[in-house]
Amino acid sequence: MGTATVASALVHMAERCSCMRELKLLHAHAFRTCLHQHTVVLGKLFRFAAVSPFGDLPYAHRMFDQMPHPTTFFYNTLIRAHSQSTTPSFSSLFFNLMRQNDVAPDQYSFTFLLKSRSRTTPLIHHCDIHGAVLKFGFCRHLHVQNSLIHLYASWGLTLSARRVFEDVLKLGLEVDVVSWSGLLVAHVKAGEVDFARRVFDEMPQRDVVSWTAMLSGYSRARRPREAMELFGEMRRAAVWPDEVTMVSVVSACASLGDVETGRMVHRFVEENGFGWMVALCNALIDMYGKCGCLDQAWHVFDGMTRRSLITWNTMMTVCANHGNADDAFRLFEWMIHSGVVPDSVTLLALLVAYAHKGWVDDGIRLFESMERDYGVEPTIEHYGAIIDMLGRSGRLQEAYDLLTNIPIPSNDVIWGALLGACRIHGDVDMGEKVIKKLLKLKPDEGGYYILLRDIYVAAGRTAEANEMRQAMLASGARKNPGCSWVEA
C-alpha cells in the first residue's frame, strides 16, 4: 500500500475518531508508517485531541511540542482549544509564542484569541489585542470586528463596543445581527437596560441570541413584567426560544411569584427537551421554591441526572427558607457524600436552617468554623443570619456585641434585623442603642423611628413614643414600605 493511500486512510479514520484510545492507535500507526509529520494526517489527529469533547488537551500539547515547525493552523487550534477550556488565559501565551516564532496569525487567530480574552478577568488590558488587530490589517474582517465588539461587551464596556461598531460602519462593512447583538449585550452587562432596549428596537434583524440577551437584561434588572411581555413578543414573532432564553423566563416567573405561568413554562421545557440543562432546572427549583411549591421543587431536583453546586445550594436554600431544616441538613450530608465541596451559599443555607430549628449554639459553631473547615470567609449575609438567629432566641446582647465588632462594613439591613428582634422581645434599652446606629447609617429611613416607637408603646412609655413620632416628622424621614426586617 502506497504512502498516499495510507495517509488517506488515516485521515478518513481520524475524521471518524470517537475517543482518545482510537486516536492514540492511529497516532502510533502514523509513527510506524513515518506519517507522523504529514501535515493533513497530523492536523486531523491534533484537532481531535485539542478541541473534541472526547479529546485530551494535555496530549495535544505533547503532540505540539514534537512539531519542529508548527504552522498557523496548529497554533490556532491550541488558541481555540484554550478559549473554550478552563484555562482561557493560555490562549494569549500561544498567540505570543506564535509571534515570537515569526508565524503569521490569520483572522481565525484573532477570533479565537478574542473569545478567550472575553473569558478572562477584566484586569487584563485588552488594548494590546485591539492594537494587534489593526497592526496585522484584520480590521476589515467582520468576524474579527464582531469578536472585538463582544470582547468589550463581555465586560460592559459600552463606549469601546460602540466605537468598534461605528468603525465597522466607517470602513464600509455591513454590520450583521452578531454586531448588533454585541452592542446590545454591552448595555445589558453595564446594567443600562433602557439603552439596551433602544438598541434592540433599532436592530434590523433579531435572532434568538438578541431576544435572549434583552430578556436576560430585564430579568437581571428585576423588571420581570417587561421580561414576560418581551417573551410574548418573541413568541408572536415566531422566534423559537432556546434553553438560555427559558432560564430568564423562569427567573421572571420566580420574581413575579407567578406559579401558573411557571408551570406552563415548565411544561414547555419538558415537551421541547430542554430539561437536560442544569442551569434551567436550577431556575425551576428556585421558581417553585419562591412560589411555595416545595413538592414540585423536589420533583425537579430528584429528576436531575446531573447536579451542579448551584443545584444543591438552591434546593438547600428552598428547604431552609421554608423552615424545613431537617431536609436542608439531609441535603448537606448527601451533597458531601456525593463529593461536592460546599461554598459560602451552602453555609448560609445551613445557618438559616439552624435559625429555623432554634439550634443557636450549633449555628454559632458552624459560623466560627467556616474559614477553618471550609475555607470560606464570612460575608455580611452570614453575619446577618447569625444576628437573626441570636435575635430570634432573645440573645440580643450577644448579637449587639457581634455587630459592634464585625470585621467588615455593616449595613442598615443587618442592624434593622436586630431592631426588629428588640421589638419582638420588648427590649427598650437595646432598641435605643440600635436606633442610634441606624440613624447614622440611614437617617432618612422612617421605618426605624416607627419600630422604636412601637417598642416604646409596647413598654407603656407613651411619652417616648410620641417624642419618636415628632422626631421622625422633624427629620423629614419617610417609611420605606419595602423594609424586609419589619416582620421577624
From TrEMBL:
Keywords: Repeat. PROSITE patterns: PPR (PS51375). The keyword Repeat applies. InterPro entries: E_motif, PPR_At4g14850-like_plant, PPR_rpt, TPR-like_helical_dom_sf. It holds the Pfam family PPR_2. PPR repeats lie at residues 176-206, 207-241, 308-342, 343-378. GO terms for biological process: RNA modification. GO terms for molecular function: RNA binding. It comes from the Eukaryota. Gene3D superfamilies: Tetratricopeptide repeat domain. PANTHER family: PENTACOTRIPEPTIDE-REPEAT REGION OF PRORP DOMAIN-CONTAINING PROTEIN, PENTATRICOPEPTIDE REPEAT-CONTAINING PROTEIN. This is Pentatricopeptide repeat-containing protein. It comes from Canavalia gladiata (Sword bean).
